[in-house]
Amino acid sequence: MRRKASLALLACAVFCAALSPLMRWYAFPRLARIPANQYQDMVLEAKGATLLDYGTMRARKVSKVTIVQTLKGNVEAAKKIEKTAGRPVVVWDSLSYVQGPDGRMVSKVPERYIFDAHSQDPVHATGEMVDGDPVTRRGIEFKWPFLTQKRDYEYFDAQTRTTSPIHYKSTQTFRGLKVYYFEQTIPWTKVPMPKTMPVQGITPESVARTGTTRWYSTVRRFWVEPVTGAPVYGEEHHKEELRGGTLLGGRARVTAFAGDVRMREDYTAHTVALVRHNRTLVLTLTSYVPWGSLTLGLLLLVLSLCLEARARRPEDRDPAHTADPQPVSA
What we know:
The chain is built from four helices and 14 strands. It is of the alpha+beta class. Strand 2 (50-53) and strand 3 form a beta hairpin. It is elongated, with a radius of gyration of 32 Å. The two termini are 55 Å apart.
């Protein structure tokens, strides 16, 4: 009976030991994925910013500039690309909509971002673009990979349409979460004019005919929760200028936008709560179940060996009692 029990425990121990690497190296890459139909929005604000008045072509201080960013998963486009890519793909149609303190549109820039559902590596396919311009991304954008490392990553900048390193700076605590702080500096770079302009009749082509060009610089900062790879907070020290040409009336440059762009508080709180939940799900696949099953397997193995040893040990028997001889009576 003990031997049967020990064999059953040994089989369970082998199963638990095999489950540990299977969960981490097989199940995790297949289950931890960005859903193809994900939708999210984010509101950022730049209080006390400088904004160009296109009516007077003069920069002025404003109370607030608001940037609304939306990311919408395009399921149908993802299915088409998956047929040729041979792996799960996510297609995000995003829009960055900037509005002034009066609610009027300053600019809006659409993007299509195509990437691997698990690794977040870019997937190049027809339709990948920024503001209608075809691009070939390198590096990440919007999100870091699962199990983010303490190292630099290549990060795509939509304004310049180029990729450059975003540097790991330190490990910090943000609202109770351990996060990695990353920073990227984009030096002054000539960038295209937005296809959609805030004033009727002004187009990128009409601006180009005046000889005026648009320049951009930013310091980008992200606080990333490393298990999920999701930024829980972000901000930019953002600057844009128009330079040269007859549009500026002889001036060398004028500020188009300058301000410290930060996530709005309610969206920060919502993001932190969401990341806490997703972090538990990822840790279940990468840590809790693999290490738990391995520990359980070792305990079952020890118990199995103990039962086997007891089954093989000869039972203790009391020595036969020999009666003392009795005298024979005559």
